[in-house]
Design brief:
Layout: E1 2-8, H1 11-18, E2 24-31, H2 38-49, E3 59-65, H3 76-90, E4 97-102, E5 109-115, H4 129-144, H5 149-185, H6 189-202, E6 206-211, E7 217-224, E8 227-230, H7 231-234, H8 240-246, H9 253-267, H10 296-318, H11 325-353
Antiparallel strand pairs: 1-3, 2-4, 3-5, 4-5, 6-7, 7-8
Amino acid sequence: MIGKCKAIAHGSTALDYIFREGKLGSRIAFHNLCSRNPKTIYEEMKMVSDYNTRCKNKFLRIEIGIAPQDEKRLPVSELMGIAHLFAKRMGFDNHQWVAVTHKDTDNRHIHIIANRISLYGEVYDTTFVSNRAARVAEEISREKGLTIAKEVKAEKKYQKSKASQTREQAKKVVQQICYSLLDKYKGTGITGHSMFLYELNKSGIIIERMKNKQGNVYGLKFSYAGQSFKASEIGREFGYHSLQKNFEASNKEEPKKTYQIIQEATEKKEQPDAGYQLVPPSHSYTPPTKANETSPIAQAVGNVASTVLNAAEEIISGAGGLINPQTYGDDYAETAWQHRLRNQAKKKKKIRRGL
């Protein structure tokens, strides 16, 4: 059995609630009251409470919960005795109060509405009143051999810890399988993504997309052995957006293409790209157009310039396309563009959250 108590201001509403049809089980006690219906009971209580004008919360609402295993042992007469004993130990002898039972839930329970102002105009002290009600309910439970709330809580706590161990074991299995498959298919494109999902399903792990009210996907849920986990519980790599990025094809093919372009240009003795030249036109040597005007000095300078150009082209060819300012320029532009998109997405999220 468990007891709760709270001071309230709306006594009329509380009385209407406990006497409402469909909820009301039995009327088990009326103390210092002549009336038997909620409206006249409130008028009687109000006549007494009006003598105190400073108190705002002039009523007490009390709930006494009965454990399911104790209901068969407690007929209405026994519940009546419990209500009177509870009120006496709470110190309601000089107060007006009414007690009824409710049947609207699976567990039977008792409702008590009491006038906080006594027949002598004294205000009931509500300091730690909820703790006091719980202690009185525990004392009565021990005396009558009923189930104590602390024992029920302890049993629930044990069951929860037992369930959490099972959940942690399932979580470790899911993490182990997910990370091993991610390492196996990472960077393999849509085919790898499909194989990742197929092998997860084959292992008994099901991925579900979580949607909001607007129908937009905002996350993933992993289910395994009767346990469900958010993607963040499994790992940062398994979020809705981050998981897709893990399977994107790597950029290892781009340097190869660049290398092929430079190699072809070298074989044809052409510049790799008009946008990139090893020696700017203003600093390059142009030999005379007429054969008669060729001097030994000009020939020597031309030979040196040609040697330098050939050596530089061989260095680039040997580097396999790693040295390519134009390619890196595109990468930098792409990186800056992605960074800008991420910043815009963060700003939109902050606006939605009201930050």
